[in-house]
Amino acid sequence: MTIIVEDSEIVVPGDLLADGNYKFGEGIVKRGNNFYSSLVGVFIIRNEFLQVRPLKGRYFPNVGDTVIGFIEDTNLTSWIVNIRGPYSGILLASNASRRRFDPIRHDARKIFDVGDVIKAEIISFDRTRDPQLATKYPRLGKLEGGRILETNPHHIPRIIGKQGSMISMIKQLTNSNIMVAKNGRIWIKANNIHDEERVVEAINQISREAHVSGLTDRISELLNTNKN
Amino acid sequence: MSDFEQVALTIEKEYIKNLLASERRLDGRTKSEFREIKIETGIIGTAQGSSIVSIGKTKVICGVKAQIGTPYPDSPNKGSLTVGFEASPLSAPEHRSGPPQDHAIEIARVTDRLIRESECVDLESLCLIEGEKIRTLIIDIYSLDDFGNLIDACGIAALAALATTQLPDVQVENGEIITLDTLSPLKLKSFPISITSYKIGDFYINDADLREELISDARITFGTTETHIVSGQKGGQSGIKSNHILEILKDTIRASASIREEIKKQIPTLKIFTN
Amino acid sequence: MTEENLRPDGRTAKQLRELKVEVGVLDRADGSSKVNLGKNLVYASVFGPRELHPKHSSKANKANVRINYRMATFSVVDYKRPFPSRREKEISKVLSEAYESVVLTKFFPRSAIDVHVEIFQSDGGTRTAASIAITAALADAGIPMRDLTGGIAAGIYQDQVVLDLSGQEDMKGTGDLPLLYSPTIDEVSLFQLDGLFTFDQFKEAFETAKSGIIQIVKVIQDALKEKYLKIRDEIGISSDDDDLNEVMVHEDEDDSINVEVTNSVDTSTPETAVTVEAAEITTSQETGAMESENSQETANESATVQTNNVEEETVSNAWYSVPSGQIKPMGGKPSDDNEDDSDSILRDIEYSNLSED
After folding, report:
1. Which of C28, C32, C82 sits opposite B146 (nearest CB)?
2. Residue B174 CB contacts under 8 Å (≥ 6 apart), including other chains
């Protein structure tokens, strides 16, 4: 049982991290008793559990994730949704609304059309089939107004912060409405352009420095100095 | 299935239009302002001239190859040049490998016309033996990073590569071409620049970035030298009011002058040999 | 070779050309790199894992790694025609296969990992320079890999085994052996050979290439880390600050909240309405994680190839999911804690409002 690389170090594929008997999660390949990194990421050790947190990479869908999707195509009774992952999301009319959808009387395009932005939840996904989305639950549906920012999905936990502390702080200091989705898309709406630009600036800085600690202080400093 | 095509977002379109109405853009520029232009030259040793040009995050690479060929029968005393462009799969998820896509061919043709019609390269000087041997300049451009407005980047890249092109000296002996070890710069006779105005709603902007380009309704490109208008191309699916054309052209001429200054600053050796 | 045992460019027999690797150089790509190996100039972009088009060429249990190797028209001394040559197609194929064995493709079934690699200036050894760029770009894109692969050629120049032949040496040389090799897993993923080698020359060339690759992989590792360490250094805060850890702990807590399954589950999609206990998932994750792949280590000693160490290779199936492996049941409840009162912007879908003409 030896830890070879220190906790929070940046590792790359092939790096030998530890040997012995550990539990392990993402970003790790075990060969014999040796644990190797399979990613460029931050090595995390938590109670004999090893993991490499990726620093960059595509969003990978998980059931229960709230995502911001772009309608790419409409069919008679379903929509193809770009969720920025390896697979397109499928939104069936039966999952779009609680109301019954009748393809003869209703036009799918009048509900969501190509280019629309929706907030949806992933209700099923098992890699063998494309992720199924739903918008029929509360607080889901079409987004109107505001602007969309795309960022590295692995930075989302940092943008949200501990107990949502980071995002609450940004919202408060910029007096804006922000929605952060697991697939790295962020919807921003503030009272004026200046405040929206401040949000964008803050998120860009978080993305750039996501793997460096002490982030909350630096962001609060940024937002307090660029008020006007 | 839309096969990696980018989707123009409805809310983004609204948002950009609203910004333009209050004289703003996504990245804080004014309507006619370009992103930062950066030019590197002489990076490719296997080419006679080369450049990497970035406009903001948009980046293209250009190489000029000089070959010896035979002239076209209708212009026995003129060398030839051609401009190619590949929307490289390096530069965006929607650019796939395979035969060139229509929009890439359009960019190549627009840039070709800009360089050709501006007569910046004196084709007669490329003739080595009249009716038999000429030089052919092949100017090929590849996109590296597509963040919008590849058209204007290609124009600048082609010009920068030509402005720094060094051709091997040749000697004609008994009708044979002998290539020498010495090099001479290609002399440019004019300074062509193309600027594209993108129409978004009722507004026209220069140097659209990726998001702006995606939602733009139409575009119009003017290629100009310091004295003439040499090429033009209207693209996009919406029309442009005829009384806007002159205004756009005036703005283009103004903007072109400042882009020329910027290019001169970055390529100090650039000289134009006007007759 | 000259009396001082120097090569045309002044290198010693086992010396690499100057190698420079940069990652994250192109922003549209998911991962990218720029490599200078001597005069070779290579750019690589990675897109994916993404949907595969055409869909019928997808594989049900793994991702397709598709490498597209190209040379720019001006990258060679003579003009290169713009369309792909047989040579470019062959190299694309062998490179694709080489990386299929290194990338952990089983994480992304049915998808494609597209890599485009383009040579803008060439001077011998472009396929191995390309492999350096591909490895760096794949790692930069966050694609999980069993190891970092390096590539280099060894060859015979003036009857002597040399490392990393330049264009000039390649032309006059009598043997060329390009190799892609992953040092940690000790696997060769691309091997080509042309020319005349004696058995001893082959053995020496093979070992020379392998030791060159170990140096190359070190350069790739440094390039991948440098990008992030640089930002850390600029800000001047040490990495052992525990802010970062706290966030991770918080995430764990967050995800272990037991979510109740509401009754609003849509019966029209019964397969999604599976309720699973957290504990159950954890165990199934662990057994699932035992999915293994036997990698045979081959040791090559004086032409007698002995197979030993059939080592078990395991990866966690908990890919991209939280350590506890818990899956949140669907529906009904807003799932994130960062919700705001943005109901106002979400238009309730009312079919009755739609025109029905």
Report:
1. C28
2. none
C230 touches chain A (CB under 8 A): no
Query: Is residue A220 domain-shared with residue A167, that is, in the same domain?
Result: yes
Separation between Cα atoms, residue A145 and residue B85, nearest integer Å: 37
Q: Cα torsion at B42, B45, B47, B49 (round to 10°)?
A: 20
A66 with C29: CB under 8 angstroms? no
User: What is the residue range of A120's domain?
Assistant: 66-142
Suggest the residue from B2, B46, B83, B138 to mutate for an interface test with chain C (most C CBs closer than 10 A). B46
C263 with C144, same domain?
no
Q: Does C202 touch chain B (CB under 8 A)?
A: no
Residue that has been written with the tokens 């709603």 in this structure: B201
Domain containing B72: what range?
A: 10-266
CB neighbour burial string for C59-97, b if at least 16 within 10 angstroms, e if fewer: eeebbbbbbbbbbbbbbbeebbeeebeeebeebbebbbe
Are A175 and A214 within one domain? yes
b (16+ CB within 10 A) / e for C220-252: bbebbbebbeeebeeeebebeeebbbebbebbe
Q: Which of C35, C58, C74 to mutate to test the interface with B (most CBs of B within 10 A)?
A: C74
**What pLDDT, in 10s, does the model give residues B137-192?**
999 999 999 999 999 999 999 999 999 999 999 999 888 899 999 999 999 999 99
Q: Residue B236 — pLDDT band, cuts 50, 70, 90?
A: very high
Question: Does B2 fall in a domain?
Answer: no
The phi and psi torsions of C298 (rounded to 5 degrees) equal: -115, 130
Nearest CA of chain B to the CA of C140: how many Å?
Answer: 15
Question: Domain check: are A132 and A70 in the same one?
Answer: yes
Residues across chain A: 228
Which chain B residues contact residue A115 at CB under 8 A?
7-10, 13
* Chain B contact for C189 (CB, 8 A cutoff): no
The verdict on residue C352 lying in a domain is: no
Residue C114 has a CB neighbour count (10 Å cut-off) of 24
In chain C, which residues have their Cβ closer than 8 Å to the Cβ of B63? 72-75, 120
The total number of structural domains in chain C stands at: 2
d(CA A45, CA C267): 41
Cβ–Cβ under 8 Å, residues A146 and A187: yes
What pLDDT shows up at residue C319? 45
Give the model confidence (pLDDT) of C48-65 as tens digits: 999 887 778 888 889 999
Q: Are C216 and C132 in contact (CB under 8 A)?
A: yes
Is residue C152 domain-shared with residue C256, that is, in the same domain? no
User: Does C39 touch chain B if contact means CB atoms closer than 8 Å?
Assistant: yes
The amino acid at residue A151 is T
> Do residue C75 and residue B44 have CB atoms under 8 angstroms apart?
yes
Please count the residue pairs, one from chain A and one from chain C, whose beta carbons lie less than 8 angstroms apart. Answer: 279
Q: How many structural domains is chain B composed of?
A: 1
**What residues make up the domain containing C270?**
242-289+320-329
In a domain, A59, yes or no: no
- Judge: B93–C68 Cβ closer than 8 Å, yes or no: no
Q: At what angle do helices A215-225 and A165-174 cross, to 10 degrees?
A: 0
